[in-house]
Amino acid sequence: MSKTLRWGLIGASTIAREWMSDAIRSTGGEVVSVMSSDQDRAAAYAKANGIPHATTSLDALLDEADAVYISTTNELHHAQVLQSARAGKHILCEKPLALTVDEAREMVDACRAAGVVLGTNHHLRNAGTHRAMREAIAAGRIGRPLFARVFHAVYLPAHLQGWRLTNPSAGAGVVLDITVHDADTLRFVLADDPVEVTALTQSAGLSQGSVEDGAMGTIRFKSGLLAQFHDAFTTAHAKTGFEVHGTEGSLIGTDCMTQRPVGDVLLRTATGEELLPIDRTNLYERSVARFTAAAHGDGEPAATGEDGIWSLAIAAAALQSARTSQVAAINPEFSTSLKVSQ
């Protein structure tokens, strides 16, 4: 494999156009092909985004690329990852990895057996705000963490609506779109794993049928820490945030659950308040750079396939809790009881 990674885009998606193509190019990669289920869409997308090859065939795309970025609808990830792994391609896949924990585990195992890198595109791990919070906790600056709160209620833009609000078989709903990110960010910042979750969901009118457009819940971690999450597609005027409160201080992150390298983190202790220094590196550029290094044998992606299994298991347990009105155990191993498709 050459030093320059040749990337194929599996899915002519908004995120690939707005964020990932530039991130690939800015980190030394080359976008060589795009695949869509519609040839006209693929051709128009390729022309608009300077991509030399457009196709409806996954095999044809795999012939062109060293690595693939998968941003199709959620129910397609499993088969596309398995096929890409069999072809020997490194894979950066959008969250959630799949619609069941079993499928996600199969994807991770297949990539390991094929000797290819699998990364989950949890961009928030790469935010300077969250990395600063993780470092402050690890350094003991707030003592023992006791509680965390994530505010990730936003308004889903019109151009991103559609299947996310209407199609359960594709993995629609706010839990698989937003709560899954909260779950990963909590694990990353706290360096702790969850054990159970209690959740309620809401359908406030933006979504259709059984699809939820809002969720609130509480996660218990192995350390005993309790974490709240509030996620929505329906709140146009809320701000996002991430807080961790410990025995000796608090970390208060504001405007930080976003794709942009913005937001601040305030450390508050008995001695006063301090704004932490924040690295403003583009989140997606850092994600692609880490993935590229891993593809060349240096380290791991920012979020691995195993991290993707964990975030899916947490989201699946949250949906299970909402359906049953009971506390749900979080299990990242094989578990058909954690099926999220409906």
UniProtKB/TrEMBL annotation:
Keywords: Oxidoreductase. It comes from Microvirga aerophila. One of its GO terms (molecular function) is nucleotide binding. Residues 5-122 form the Gfo/Idh/MocA-like oxidoreductase N-terminal domain. Residues 130-251 form the GFO/IDH/MocA-like oxidoreductase domain. PANTHER family: BCDNA.GH03377 (PTHR43818:SF11). InterPro entries: Gfo/Idh/MocA-like_OxRdtase_N, Gfo/Idh/MocA_oxidrdct_glycsds, GFO_IDH_MocA-like_dom, NAD(P)-bd_dom_sf. This is 1,5-anhydro-D-fructose reductase.
